[in-house]
Write a structure and sequence with these properties.
Elements lengths: L1 H12 L1 H27 L9 H4 L12 H51 L7 H41 L13 H22 L6
């Protein structure tokens, strides 16, 4: 009532300003009604959820299910898969570096030992020690990479499981067996066999 009285007084002396204020008040009221109607519906008018999507309502009672929530949950679930693949690519980089170190170390040792056996050089202790050190460094780096990858993936699985229990993601897609991790374990076994053969002159790489 006070606002209406002030508008009447303002209209008596400043009719243009009074008309402008009236229009602004009507626009603000219209915006409030529109926002209230959209929030009460939970999704834009005219959009109906399919039966398949409606049956997939999340178990959490605190989340208001709509199309945006469903899409956000699916994007979050896909981000877990992207993170898993990024971890695999990181482990691939570790495998490449470790393979290079093991290969160079083994090659250096074998070349200088063959030259010593043929009488071209008299001593091959220094190149052999250097080669063994390179192979050992490659094995150490590969071991640390495997441990880090396993710890990271376990933490990612726990986070995904907790978010699934809270109803934030669906968690339908499974994490498949990592071919990269399997390759890393195989290379680790080969590296250990290589350094044992080089150090003790036994094994398949002697």
């Amino acid at each position: 009532m006070e606002i209406i009285y002030q508008l009447k007084v303002l209209d008596a002396f400043y009719p243009v300003q009074a008309a402008t204020i009236t229009i602004l008040l009507a626009f603000v009221r219209w915006c409030g009604i529109l926002l209230a109607s959209r929030s009460s519906l939970g999704r834009p008018a005219g959009i109906e959820l399919s039966d398949m999507v409606s049956e997939r309502t999340m178990p959490s009672p605190n989340l208001k299910f709509d199309v945006n929530t469903e899409l956000a949950a699916r994007r979050t679930g896909m981000s877990f898969q992207r993170t898993r693949m990024s971890a695999d690519r990181t482990l691939m980089s570790v495998i490449r570096t470790s393979l290079s170190l093991i290969g160079f170390g083994f090659t250096i040792t074998q070349v200088f030992e063959k030259l010593r056996d043929q009488g071209v050089i008299t001593k091959a202790a220094a190149p052999r020690n250097f080669g063994v050190a390179l192979v050992g460094l490659g094995i150490l780096m590969l071991t640390l990479g495997i441990v880090y990858h396993v710890q990271f993936m376990l933490g990612l699985r726990r986070l995904r499981a907790s978010m699934r229990e809270e109803g934030l993601v669906h968690g339908e897609t499974v994490f498949p067996l990592s071919l990269t991790l399997t390759t890393a374990f195989v290379l680790l076994v080969i590296g250990v066999a290589t350094i044992v053969s080089m150090a003790f002159h036994v094994g398949p790489f002697e």
